[in-house]
Amino acid sequence: MTKTQNLKSLDSQDDEITWKFENIMIAKIYGKDNKSRFYEDSADGRFRDRLKLDHQTGSLSITNTRTTDSGLYKVTRKSSGTPLNIFSLTVYARLLVPVISRDCSVLSLYQNCSLLCSVVNVSQVTLSWFKGNSLLSSISVSDLSISLSLPLEVEYQEKNTYSCVLNNSFTNQTQHLNISGLCHTHLDCIYCCGSTEVVIRLALSALVGVATVAVLVYDIRSRSLQQKRRQKSQSNNN
């Protein structure tokens, strides 16, 4: 990153050009011998060996820019007494391609496949699921550097096109979902879960099945009993 000032030559040997980051001195050009000085230990040493000054223009260059270089910069000329330029710089981290994986922590229906789209150590980004060109869901993070995950549930035999997109203000990275590659059968999750978890899942599935049968049997018996009572009531009336 280079910030160009296009300055004329220094007015006198006593003139100076100074650069500051968040009001901390980081570089200076002296008019006396037209030499430059870099304050390597200032600003927590974040600019060490990464600053360059152009004596003709007064431009400051920062090599290998990082997110920690974001902040307020000010360049001042001693002879003028006032800042020549004040600007804010924001450096965004390079976006990584999001990762789509099978989510075996979710107890899905037998015809469904649970998935997770994940990214790590991100800030000022949005993570989204798309079905074709339609937005299904999204989650955003501002200044904190954290990990994000966004769930999605699809059917095993589904033919729709899904994609997970990570984006910030300038660029984006997209990962397309391969349903046949990630979602083979419902039993796949048995191999990615511990034996105890598998037993719990099967027990829960069995309980759901038993409860459904119990409700159905109760409903049938209740209807049968009501019908017998009606028939008995009609016989007594006759």
Automatic annotation (TrEMBL):
Ranges of residues in domain Ig-like: 98-180
Superkingdom of source: Eukaryota
InterPro entries attached to this UniProt entry: Ig-like_dom, Ig-like_dom_sf, Ig-like_fold
SUPFAM superfamilies linked: Immunoglobulin
Keywords: Membrane, Transmembrane, Transmembrane helix
Keyword Transmembrane helix: yes
The keyword Lipid biosynthesis is assigned to this record: no
Membrane-crossing segments per the record: 198-220
Protein's recorded name: Ig-like domain-containing protein
Organism: Sinocyclocheilus grahami
